[in-house]
Amino acid sequence: MAKAIVVGAAGKMGRRITQSILQTPGMTLVGAVEREGHPAVGKDVGDLVGEGSVEVVVDSDLERVADKGDVVIDFTAPEGSLRNLELGVRHGCALVIGTTGFSPEQMDEVRALGPQTRCVMAPNMSVGVNVMFRIVADVAKILGEAYDVEILEAHHRFKKDAPSGTAVKLGETIASALGRNLEEVGVWHRKGLVGERQSTEIGMAVLRAGDIVGEHTVIFGGIGERLEVTHRAHSRDNFAQGAVKAAQWVVGQPNGLYDMQDVLGLRRH
Ligand code: NAD
Q: Which residue segment(s) compose the domain that 44 sits in?
């Protein structure tokens, strides 16, 4: 029985994950955390997510509840997730981090801290997107230099970071498959007289509107044709179920920093 703590429990993802844990045999919810001053603090998290009382009260400090859990699931914001990762290392908890929008410096900290415990970190926990990560690398290699790569993502109006972590990871995956570095070839804005497209560019386009859950398209554009690979999330449930699957998986692993390719057995060795 894996004992889980959800951080960011009152957020859009935190609520789905909490519900998913309560409905998953073999998982017990032992803690819920929200940021200091959030109206959910002090409330029963089961009531909060419409499942009825589960006698787990939302706390404002993970430090107070960390020792109760085997695994912390964190979908919050980069600063909070980094603190929780450091705290998880100290308390010997495994972690599942779904937060996106980390700076390169924050990612360096994740890479240093993550392997000191068992940590799954992935910008997208859905099965479909993780299959997409794998196939776009294959498509890029097959089509090669003659096809331009452009990535388009669309999300709801509340999303704080851009481009999405998933779009960035798609770009990194394709760049790596083509022997390029996204830092060097990524084009994040185009406006004005920008000149002709360079063949090695990987362009990113971002849309924000209404309640779009999450859509990603990779366009491989040649002369006379284009190939598009698209994923559309219909609800947040697939991310939540992926996070719970990752939590069940990671508690049994040796220390290391993993992603969903490991959890889903998609990594090529
Ligand atoms: P949200 O704003 O609805 O929820 C975030 C919650 O975290 C809020 O309730 C906020 O109060 C809380 N929070 C922030 N800092 C905190 C801290 N230090 N301690 C405790 N609680 C804290 O956002 P969301 O849509 O749920 O997304 C959260 C994150 O997850 C974003 O970075 C988003 O991009 C990412 N996300 C990842 C996936 C995935 O599959 N990996 C899927 C969807 C969203």
A: 2-121+236-263
